[in-house]
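Lab channel / #folding
Pinned by the channel admin:
"Please post every new chain as: sequence first, then the structure tokens as a reply. Keep commentary short and put observations after the output so the thread stays searchable."

First post following the new format, from NK:
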Amino acid sequence: MFNCKLNWFWLMTTGVMVAACTHTTIDTSGNSESNIAQASSIPNYPPMYNVEVKVCGDIIAPIRDEQRCINQNLRLWGPVKEAKLVRTGISLPSVSAVDHKVAIASQGCYPVYSQPSQAQFYWADTIIQVNRGSTPTIEIKQTQLSNQQIYELMTNRLTSRRIATFGGMGCEPAPVN
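Reply from TO:
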């Protein structure tokens, strides 16, 4: 038993010495073969966008910068073709505002769809109460993600702030014309 422990000790000692004496270099130029191999192993992804949706007008929302606005950040496949504010609630005489939802024309939302889907309108998880008789404005700002960012997102390595996705039952198609 003592002989077995002694052999184990010498094996560990030899392993540590070999590891300590191995020459290691770090390539900071970015041109190493490992970097090139890693870059070539990243698949080519379809376009994905971070989309900021801003709805402003005579709506039920806090006043900021002398405007009433609701902002939402989304991550979508394909560029946004169009955004609409669609009435989803019933106008009641005793209530001054009616529920509306944002419908966005894209190829689906991430992560509900792991790949682009059919190009159509999808509901965003935003219910906006619009005062009767008013027409709010919708502003869309979209930024395309790089292939590297999509790869990091798909492999759970993206460390940017969390982007809300569509909610409710998920990224459901919206029956909008």
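NK: Confidence is low (pLDDT under 50) at residues 24-30, 165-169.
TO: also worth noting, DSSP finds three helices and seven strands in the chain.
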